[in-house]
Amino acid sequence: PTRTIALANQKGGVAKTTTCLNLGAALVKRGRRVLLIDLDPQANLTLGLGLDPYQQQATTYEVLLNADKGAGFAVQSIGEGLDLIPATIDMAAAELELAGKIGRETLLREALTPLRDRYDYILIDPPPSLGLFTLNALVAASEVVIPLQVHVYALKGVAQLQQTIKLVQKLNPSLQISGVVCTMVDRRNNLSRVVEQQIRETFGQLVFETIIPTNITLAEAPASGQSIIDYAPTSAGALAYSALAEELDHAQA
Amino acid sequence: PTRTIALANQKGGVAKTTTCLNLGAALVKRGRRVLLIDLDPQANLTLGLGLDPYQQQATTYEVLLNADKGAGFAVQSIGEGLDLIPATIDMAAAELELAGKIGRETLLREALTPLRDRYDYILIDPPPSLGLFTLNALVAASEVVIPLQVHVYALKGVAQLQQTIKLVQKLNPSLQISGVVCTMVDRRNNLSRVVEQQIRETFGQLVFETIIPTNITLAEAPASGQSIIDYAPTSAGALAYSALAEELDHAQA
Ligand SMILES: Nc1ncnc2c1ncn2[C@@H]1O[C@H](COP(=O)(O)OP(=O)(O)OP(=O)(O)O)[C@@H](O)[C@H]1O
Ligand SMILES: Nc1ncnc2c1ncn2[C@@H]1O[C@H](COP(=O)(O)OP(=O)(O)OP(=O)(O)O)[C@@H](O)[C@H]1O
Ligand SMILES: [Mg+2]
Ligand SMILES: [Mg+2]
Questions:
Q1: pLDDT tens, residue by residue, A97-134
Q2: How far apart are CA A46 and CA A69, in angstroms?
Q3: Which of A13, A88, A241, B248 sits between 20 and 30 A of B238, alpha carbons compared?
Q4: With an 8 Å Cβ cutoff, are B48 and A153 in contact?
């Protein structure tokens, strides 16, 4: 069955987009069919894959406004085995616009129904908030993978995310946290080691063995419009996301 | 006259909170009377100053719901010369709740009116979005200081922020961008130098001379509930925010 995964975390800058894009690319390299969905008005996922967010015709915005038509019309092929539903900068106003629609949290789930069998993985990149876009991602998903920067503010924010996931389970009972991935880890510094330790104590088996190290190549890749796998295949970032893809693939939810 | 400054940027994790907290503390050290306002449901500013966001009685949430009463009831003293209006985790639902109120973007401006003469600076820490909280910050502010991480996604997002500021000028004609501060700068790496260069070419004189270097001590300080000025007064982070405070203080808007 298709695994639909939301890379959710309301804390900003914890590598949601970087994880969605590069985990997706690493899963494609393992032969999986993957759909990425950009659900953030910043459209960083769209940008990071080399597209211009200002030029997109059919986007997640239109998908949410026409949920009953299915999302197929907005799917673009990025490369062998990798598809994307892009975002548009104009989406910023959509949250307030959708706020009044009936079933406003279930629009994405409805739109994805006709697509599921085409993919092994659907990865969703939400914005840094717990608003309507993130709720749509959590309702549409079967699993949540939480990218977690090993810093104080990020760690403190996880309780709020867990609270929101509990509430969403009323609309989506099968939703589970399938993993927490430590990002921007720098084991040379004490803070990183201490916070990673606290994360492993709090989440136990849910924390992936694989950690994503701080690696400047990951921050350079978006300028090229390529995933880290294509931009710098032997970099620490590429090796880490490949290892994460392997670990995720083996741990069937 | 009081300078009311919004530390706005919808990109997540660019050091909005870190800049609001530590710039505020550095201005207090220069003898200025400062009010900080936590306008983010993550309540990181509240947390970073040593308060428990789950225990706050009078917060920005109540201020927005009772704008006509003035914000004075929610002001807490943090230390000599530094006051805070804290946030609460419960605020996450407030954005949708306030969406239907008349004058919903002007609530904070109205609530701050009775307080202005008490302070030299009022610094506002918004969430990573362009929603109602950030709009309230921009309408209430006389200036915007943009914390800007020297990375690709952050640089690409600035155009959208400038667009929003232009729209807000209809409600707040005196609103100006008074500065852009480069954050998490690491001049040893090429990406950081290239992006900083692009920022200086785009914004010219608006970019502060002072840059904030990547400095792990800044990420450690929130665990102590102290500003960097108190936690590690001789660290690179403390020196940088003190220099920024001096530069801001001299550049009357
Ligand atoms: N492991 C890493 N090493 C170095 N830089 C990284 C790493 N992961 C991400 N980055 C960079 O850090 C910044 C934040 O990452 P990213 O934008 O993916 O986070 P996000 O959670 O999606 O942010 P937002 O909350 O704004 O959506 C980006 O500029 C990205 O290129
Ligand atoms: N100069 C710096 N050097 C090292 N770490 C930093 C620096 N500035 C901020 N940080 C750390 O980086 C993380 C992001 O900073 P911060 O939370 O202040 O950003 P923000 O823009 O307020 O994020 P959000 O978008 O979630 O509100 C925090 O963990 C913070 O401690
Ligand atoms: Mg992102
Ligand atoms: Mg913040």
A1: 888 888 999 999 999 999 999 999 999 999 999 999 99
A2: 22
A3: A13
A4: yes
- Asked whether A11 and A98 are in contact (CB, 8 A), the reply is no
How far away, in angstroms, is A124 Cα from ligand 4 center? 23
CA A185 – CA A215 distance, rounded (Å)? 9
Taking CA–CA distances from B186, the nearest residue in chain A reads A216
Quickly count: other Cβ atoms within 10 Å of residue B81's Cβ: 18
Spatial strand order of the sheet with A3-6 comes to A76-79, A82-85, A34-38, A121-125, A3-6, A143-149, A176-183
Measure CB to CB from residue A216 to each of B12, B129, B189 and give the nearest one.
B189
Structure tokens at B90: 């419960």
The residue assigned the tokens 């953030």 is A40
pLDDT digits (tens, 9 = 90+) for A157-187: 999 999 999 999 999 999 999 999 999 999 9
| CA dist list (Å): A209 to A14, A18, A144 | 18, 18, 17
Which alpha helices (H) appear in B14-151, and where do they start and end? 16-29, 44-48, 60-65, 94-98, 107-112, 132-140
Identify residues of A whose CB sits under 8 angstroms from chain B CBs: 10-14, 17, 41-42, 44, 47-48, 89, 92, 95-96, 99, 127-132, 149, 151-153, 156-157, 160, 164, 189, 191, 216, 219-220, 222-223
Look at residues B181, B131, B182, B141 and name the one whose alpha carbon lies nearest to residue B161. B131
Write the pLDDT tens digit of every residue in A193-211.
999 999 999 999 999 999 9
- How close A172 comes to chain B (CA, Å)? 20
Q: Considering only CA atoms, give the Rg of chain B.
A: 17
CB-ligand 2 contact for B235 (6 Å cutoff): no
Cβ contacts of B54 within 8 Å, gap of 6 or more: B88, B89
